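Input chain follows. Return C-alpha cells only.
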Amino acid sequence: MTRYNDNALSPWPYPRLAVHRAGGVLAPENTMAAFREGFRHGYRAIETDAMLAADDVPVLVHDEFFGRTISMPGAVPDYTGEQIRTMDAGSWFSPFYAGEPPAGYVQAMNWCRKNGVWANVEIKPAKGHERDTGRVVGAITAQLFRDVLADEYSKDEDLRPKLPLFSSFKPEALLGAKETAPRIPRGFLIDEIPANWLQILEETQSIALHINHKRATREFVQQIKGAGYYVFCWTVNDPRRAQELFDWGIDGLCTDRPDLLSPGL
C-alpha cells in the first residue's frame, strides 16, 4: 500500500472527526444506540472496539473484564458472542437504556455500510489473543467489504475512503489483520510515546500514528508527518484544543462530545 508521494502525504481520505466508542458520552458505548446517537448529531464516522468472544465471534466491547458497563462475572473470552449479545450494556448508563446489548461487529459494520458511516475499528484483543483477534477481525472485515476490495479498476488510494481503518495498541494484532486483510489500512495506537514508534509503523505497514492528544506537540506532529504518516488524535473534547491540533497539521481525531464538536470543524 503506497504511503508516499515524493515524501509528501496525499490528503487524509477519511472524515476528520469521529465519535469515540460510537456515541461518546451521550449513549452507552459500543451499542447500536450509541451508533444512532452519533449519527443523530451529524457524525458519519465512528471509532469502536472489536474483541473476540469465546467462539471467535467479534463483539464491540472495550473492557476485557466485565464490571464497568456490563454487570456480569468474568470476561469477554468466557462467553460466546451470542451470550454477550444478550447482556445488558445500557443500565450502567441510564435506566432509559436498560437492556441495550453490546453491538455485534458484523451487525455494526453492516449498519455503517447501509448508512454511509466510516469506521475506525480498534482491534482490542483480550490478553494472549493479539494475533488471532487481528486475523479474525481482518478476515471478517475483508468478507464484509469484498465488493469494494474486488474492484480491480480502483487503486488502493481510491479504496481507502470506502474501507474501515484498523487501529490497535498491539502490533501483533495489526500484523494479524495484515495477514487476512492486507488491503485494509492500519494505524498504530499509542499513549506514552515509545522510542520505536517509527519502527513499529514500518513493521506493521501502517499508514497512521494514533496518539493521545495530551502527548501531542507541534514538533511531534511535524515529525510524524515528515516521516510520511498521518496523525490521528484521541480523545479530544474541547473545540479550542481540536482547532489547535488541526492548526498543527493533524489529520483526524475522535471525540466523546459530538454535541460540542461539530463534525464539520
